[in-house]
Amino acid sequence: MEVLIVTLPLLAAIISGFFGKYVGDRNSEIITSLLVSISAILSIFILYQVVINQYGNNVLISTWINSGSLNVNWSVKIDALSSIMLVVVTSISSLVHIYSIGYMSHDPHKPRFMAYLSLFTFAMLMLVTSDNFIQLFFGWEGVGLCSYFLIGFWFKKETANAAAIKAFVVNRVGDFGFALGIFLIFYLFDTVNYSEVFEQISSSKDKELIFLGLNLNAIDLICLLLFIGAMGKSAQIFLHTWLPDAMEGPTPVSALIHAATMVTAGVFLVVRCSPIYEYSELALNVITIVGMSTAFFAATIALVQTDIKKIIAYSTCSQLGYMFFATGVGAYNIAMFHLFTHAFFKALLFLGSGSVIHAFKDEQNINKMGGVWKKLPYTYTLMVIGTLALTGFPFLSGFYSKDAIIEFAYLKGNTTGYYAAGIGIITAFLTSIYSWRLIFKTFHGSYNNQDIKIEDTHESPLIMLIPLFLLSLGAIFAGFAFKELFVVTIGPNSFWDDSIFFLKPLSSEHPPFWFLILTPVLVISSIPIAFYLFVKNKDLSKRIASVNKPLYDFLIHKWYFDEIYDIIFVRSSKKLGLILWKFFDIKLIDGFGPDGISSFIKKCSLKANKFQSGYIYQYAFIMLLGFSALLTYLIIK
Amino acid sequence: MNFPILSSLILLPSIGALFLFFTKSKKENNSTIKYVALFTSLVNFFLSIYLWILFDETTSSFQFVEDRIWIEGLINYKIGVDGISILFILLATFITPLCIISINNSIKNRLAEFLIAVLIMESFMIGVFCSLDLLVFYLFFEAGLIPMFLIIGIWGGERRVYSAFKFFLYTLLGSVLMLIAIISIYWITGTTDITSLYELRIDSKYQNLLWLAFFSSFAVKTPMWPVHTWLPDAHVEAPTAGSVLLAAILLKMAGYGFIRFSLGLFPVASEIFTPLVYTLSVIAIIFTSLIALMQEDMKKLIAYSSVAHMGFVTLGIFTIQQQGLEGSIIQMISHGLVSAALFLSVGVVYDRMHSRLINTYGGIVSIVPKYSVLLMIFVLASLGLPGTSGFVGEFLILMGAFKDNFLIAVIASVGVILGAAYILWLYKRVVFGKLINSDLKEMTDLNKSELFILSCLAIPILFFGFYPDPLINTIEVSISDLIKMYNINLIKN
Q1: Between chains, do B428 and A212 touch, taking CB under 8 Å as contact?
Q2: Do A138 and B386 touch (CB under 8 A)?
Q3: pLDDT tens column, A94-123
Q4: Looking at CB atoms within 10 Å, which of A139, A578, B156, B399 has the fewest?
Q5: What does the alpha-carbon distance between residue A360 and residue A338 come to, in Å, rounded to a whole number?
Q6: Which residue range forms the structural domain that includes residue B419?
Q7: DSSP bridge pairs for B491
Q8: What is the tally of structural domains in chain B?
Q9: What ipTM does the predicted assembly reach?
Q10: B198 in reach of chain A (CB within 8 A)
């Protein structure tokens, strides 16, 4: 059964990808959706088994790479952690499959699209069920590849192609760190299987390495290198630039890959490696700092963006930051909790925005929307539910997970913990502002689109609304229903068992009351503020922007990351390539090498030719010269 | 001594070539000529598969050995295979028939002569990989260049003569030095038999010079930076089939030579010169990847990427680690398949549009969907995506390198990022984007034989990506014994 969960999506991808032409558009849509849904049902069953019976298993499918002491297998590992991920991935994926039937109804390449979605699901499942680092890497690159395909799905769009390559290459930068981390693990422990590596960690925590004359702690280094990979995949600050651009792809893709599943792989990696990270105080601090910086910085950018999908993309970035600083303060289970709830409400928001974009005939600019909440009642309601959940409105799913993160950061009790909690609260407020800005600008106020009449906007078909409805159930209840399951880490009935490792048990105290209600109060009070700023008194928000022009520009240019990277990396490597080619290869190597030699020989032989002039007097002169030289030599000697 | 299977492998293509020699090269005969060549090479391929089945993976000693006196007291015709060499023979016999099928309309003149060159080259290549005597090796090694020289010089593009001579000039220098080294080995030890040389151990005071002489020949043919500049020119001018043979098989002779001779005969010198090889390898990986990024000619881009990939190979070989060496061999096999596939893919569009320039193309995905899918597989294998053979090789090499030298492994890993950049950018510019050049609309998708050839290459690339055991098991014992012998010799010297 475990193997079926993983292979059904692959089967779906093969059928739809290679035989799509023969099966037909409609059939390939049905087949892929059906197979992935079966996989989702099986996953829920597995999770049920794990919760009730503490089920765990490691199914070996086949060997993969066996070279010397390196033994890598294809396997499906089931434990608490992977069963949660299985459910998240397959359930969101099946809903997105179904939604795509409606969303892509006008696209000529449906089977190809469905095949990519299923293939992605397969790769993601390989990633989460791996029992070793190399299969993890396989899934890791596999999801990156499918993301590349799906971002560039509309291949005629130049921007989509550029975004696809950018996503792949930036991810490769992260993978570079990840791969080095794996090499280092193999170097130290002579194995890449999780269980064997984790066993040896505690005995080798003081090992040191010398690199470029520096003494580095091996465990710290492993953790940091793996984290670079996680930063790439989860779009953390410095390696985040690909995620907003990735919105060039079709919206269902953004919901599945760039909200619920692939981008959370980095968080999953850190949680999976908790037995290593627990021994590296340094790495945990770095993760906390990177996480909180990303949370804050992405939220500030989201405040001013005008593309509905980009706002949600930056919001994803920011929420991933929350998950990371949760792991950084050691609350791995809470990070997983937020990952779990986030998958529902963020997929809901993305698919909802897809429904809006659909209604506006591919318009994505929120300044060209407004006032349509009566025209799109279902989409509107569902989007509001998603927003409430995201902002952490009391008793919706985001409330439980996000507030838990802030609390645990506070309870950590050290400086970075306090900072993280503070930033977390500020970011929660910003999140609330930009989320409501999106809702108000899209659905309220006056209608601002000249191209499409308001009468022509229409509600989406049922096949798109049903997945939205199901996701909204998750967004409302997932937090409350699964709170106990995720939060309890100690005791015989703990769900996590040994899939997460805690060096020291998490603090079981409670923060002071004022701290507990601070976030909810801010979140609730932000709704009227946003309403005032973006509906009632629009001039005020414009005035704020014009007064703080430099700051506004800074934000609208996304902190200038793209511009700086373009100068440092893209242009300089192109220039370097040209120099190496035109100057090094052609001028230097060829010039002194083969071309030089052949032209030298040519010149010599031309000179030699001149000697054979045929004039007797020249020959006689040379002979005389030679004879006198010889004579002189003999006399002197 | 039973049926001389290795000699048959070497001789069969030449016999086919002999047949062709006596056929009149007329236009009407062309299909017959092609079938004769194809038949010969296919028989050879099946024979080599049979050899692989018979091959005993549990021992590292040479198998199917044939030992005949050639010139009394001087040269013995001694051949045999072990785990290191057998895969290269398979690669050669696998690629050659595909090459012959691929010649449809691209070679218009003197088809018979062209096929003779191809078949003779196959003979020589197989000879290189199974010779167990230095002089026999040398003869095959150098003779193999002659058909290639002719293929470029006669059937090449506009600047064929320049390219052919550049190719010749580069290889000549190394060859002369290697011949001198072989003669001196004979003077020093009194034998050129490789198996006895392995046991004799050449005195360490001679090793450095001898190593350098061999190195100068192998480095040119690998090609390593900075003696790589003949390769892009040779590829650009060579006809498609020539490029395929050059990239897939000819370049592998040097990698094989490094393992068999540099490591096997001169362990002390290899240890001394490892830093040199490392440096040149990472320079090759980084520099040529950057250069590949800026190419406008598809064949040149792939040629430069070959240099980078071979940089990984040389890096892996000199790690003298199980993973590094096995990775190198798998990388060579994988590169043989992938580069062959890439050059054939360029050939496909070249036959239709008569242009190798990247900016001629763009937006062809909906016109040639099958082609686009297959090319995508090859592109992914080239950038080393897990699940393709390229990944297994590259990853093992880097793992091995990391064990030996952190810094080198870190720099080489940067090459992996660049590798993704240039090849994906190539794919994007050729296949995706808006269709601007309206001539492209006339393009037809892959015909049956092209589809067949490219699928034949795609299948092993994917299969060995998911399940490389057949390859690794074949080489495992030979490699581990080679490393043991290397270390023992190092200590004893």
Answers
A1: no
A2: yes
A3: 999 998 888 888 888 888 888 899 999 999
A4: A578
A5: 32
A6: 5-492
A7: none
A8: 1
A9: 0.85
A10: no
